[in-house]
Amino acid sequence: MAHPVMFDEDDPLLARVRSIALALPEAEERLSHGRPWFHVADRPAFAIYGGGTRGPEKVMHPHAVLVHVDDDERPARMQDPRFFVPAYLGPRGWLGIDVDAPDTDWTEVAELLDASWRRSAPPRLLR
């Protein structure tokens, strides 16, 4: 059974995330688990739009960007209340950040997407 679509195609925040993510070399978008996933080449995803947390206090974050964070940055990011540990991917080093706050730092979002892209990109693109 296919997952239901869990985003609005006309979401202006998604459009902004797309413009940043798809500007990265060989980035492409695929629909998976009802959400936009961003990949580079045929590699694992480097970003996902939307997600949520697990557990007794499950919280949905429909306007969040999930990224794979460097291990050395993860502890500091987890101390920042803007970040959350997403369901399923959190144990693999991913964190989420909501982008629907009026004070969203889009430069920071772009840097997070770039860093996550670099973790997933093939060596030929990193040269």
From TrEMBL:
InterPro entries in the record: YjbR-like_sf, YjbR/MT2646/Rv2570-like
Segments forming a coiled coil: none
Membrane-spanning intervals of the chain: none
GO molecular function: DNA binding
Domain of life: Bacteria
SUPFAM superfamilies per record: YjbR-like (SSF142906)
UniProt keywords, alphabetically: DNA-binding
Annotated protein name in UniProt: MmcQ/YjbR family DNA-binding protein
Species the sequence originates in: Amnibacterium endophyticum
High-level lineage: Bacteria, Bacillati, Actinomycetota, Actinomycetes, Micrococcales
